[in-house]
Amino acid sequence: MAEQDWKPAHESLAAYLNDHLVGAETGVRLFRAASDTWQGSEYESVFTSLAEELSGERDELENLIIALGYGRSKVKALAGWAGALIGRLGPMNPLSTGGGPTGQLELEMLQSLVRQKESMWRTLLVLSARDRRFNPVRLRELLDAAQRQQQEVAHVMEATAVARFLT
Length: 167
Description:
Blueprint (H helix, E strand, L loop, with lengths): L9 H28 L6 H24 L6 H16 L10 H29 L7 H30 L2
């Protein structure tokens, strides 16, 4: 079989991308909440900017799913909607202070979400070597952006750790 003829299994790739789409929606919601948490601080713009970037990447992922000929999973879309509703009722940092262990966990969760996205772009970049439906140049850009985004969250986490735990 020629390399350009190889196609990933429809069901497994569609499910994988839909899982990441739900994660992307969660990420956008949590980065917007972080922007509110850090409102008025020197880090507010970091989270506002990251929320906007992630929103655009979420839309790009949804468009990719459609371009590949896959549908949006209704079950996973419903799960994402339910997660958003639950998140509004009890967000991860209910006091929205950015301080203490809850604030630390919020920052670690944000880094984890971006790390998962980075892994997805890396996986799709691997697939792009054998499936021409993927744009390897764009995937590399998205991978690089995810790595930069992780560094931005890590910077906030490191810059605020002493105040969070030792003051």
